[in-house]
Design a protein that fits this description.
The chain is mainly β and about 325 residues long. It is built from one helix and 24 strands. The chain folds into two domains: about 1-10 and about 160-275, Jelly Rolls, CATH 2.60.120; about 20-35 and about 60-160, Jelly Rolls (Sandwich). About 5% of the residues lie in helices and about 40% in strands. The chain has a seven-stranded antiparallel beta sheet with strand order 1-18-15-20-13-12-11, with no helix packed on it. A six-stranded antiparallel beta sheet has the order 3-8-5-6-23-24, with no helix packed on it. The chain has a five-stranded antiparallel beta sheet with strand order 2-9-4-7-10, with no helix packed on it. It holds the Pfam family Pirin_C.
Length: about 325
């Protein structure tokens, strides 16, 4: 039988990805109780490099937040962000006037297109207990024809996202049809919007001491399985430890045998775009000349400016999950 494992590699920060994805980051923070003002009820004076707190040896990080953890206003251009919050909450604000609080399984899909600013803050809403956060952010590239589309903001609420329960596994279908289960439609200008591109974002949880069969895909796609939590697994003759990425032959169904713990995976799959990639921080274009042009555009326009009172904007502590769209439409959950 053909070995479906083409390559394994240790997971770094960010995760290594293949076209059409640019990168993915995984945040797991065991935040303490809140201090009543949505920050941590622990001193920030000892050993934290506020503004750039990414110490992997700590149980939790402030990232670029000074009082509340998160990422204050920053620009993006030329690609999409898919933000999956399995635990905790994220407060979003952007230069389009859109805003939201999402979490507990919700997903935000944002097409940066020709340029947008946004902030992503992690308010600690519970003052009587800890505030764990588990978040994935995936950068999906846009083809040349989509680099300058209008920015787009979309919420995929946890209650609406298909979850497939199988005998030995649970599969959250964020993007890409899983067997006969179709996802919520992605953003309209996304590479994922065309089924022929076979873009898939699946969060898989395979029960301990069991075997699960991952269905095959078209041989023209790139397929990477990220094993981010659990005990060792076996794929054929390959023993693989957690915190490894697994590049798979998409034309082969893959049998995964788990060990003494439930195994947690993120699968990223898609037909390569194949365009040249020029990157400078949060800007992703096809040439360095385009990067320079986009940087000049940002200097001149700030991609529409920042309509919120603070760069690390957060919403009212007592507010529930919601999405405010650029056209003024409000959805509350």
């Amino acid at each position: 039988m053909k070995n479906p494992v083409l390559q394994t590699f240790p997971l770094s920060t960010p995760w290594q990805t293949l076209d059409p994805f640019l990168f993915s980051v995984y945040h797991l923070d065991h935040f303490p109780k809140g201090n009543g003002e949505m920050g941590p009820d622990e001193s920030l004076l000892k050993g934290r490099n506020l503004g750039s707190d990414f110490n992997p040896n700590e149980k939790w990080r402030m990232y670029h937040g000074q009082t509340i953890p998160g990422f204050p206003s920053h620009p993006h251009c030329g690609f999409e962000t898919i933000t999956i919050v399995n635990k905790g909450f994220c407060d979003h604000s952007d230069s389009l006037g859109a805003a939201g609080r999402f979490g507990q399984g919700d997903v935000q899909w944002m097409t940066a297109g020709r340029g947008v600013q946004h902030s992503e803050m992690f308010p600690l809403l519970k003052d009587e207990e800890e505030n764990p956060l588990e978040l994935f952010q995936i950068w999906l590239n846009l083809p040349k024809a989509g680099k300058f589309v209008a920015p787009h903001f979309k919420m995929l609420w946890n209650e609406d996202i298909p979850i497939v329960e199988e005998e030995n596994a649970k599969i959250k279908v964020v993007a890409g049809t899983y067997k006969n289960v179709a996802p919520i439609s992605p953003a309209p200008d996304s590479w994922a919007a065309s089924p022929e591109n076979e873009v898939a974002v699946w969060n898989l949880h395979v029960h301990k001491g069991s075997e699960y069969m991952l269905p095959k895909a078209n041989k023209s796609v790139n397929r990477v399985l990220y094993f981010y939590e659990g005990s060792e697994i076996h794929i054929g003759d390959n023993k693989i430890n957690p915190n490894f990425g697994i590049v798979l032959d998409p034309s082969e169904a893959v049998g995964i045998k788990t060990g003494s713990e439930t195994a947690h995976f993120m699968l990223l799959q898609g037909k390569p775009i194949g365009d040249p990639v020029a990157k400078y921080g949060p800007f992703v274009m096809n040439t360095q000349a385009e990067i320079q042009k986009v940087m000049e555009e940002y200097r001149l326009t700030q991609f529409g400016g920042w309509p919120w009172p603070h760069p690390d904007n957060v919403h009212d502590k007592n507010r529930g999950r919601f999405a405010l769209y650029p056209d003024g439409k409000l959805v509350e959950k």
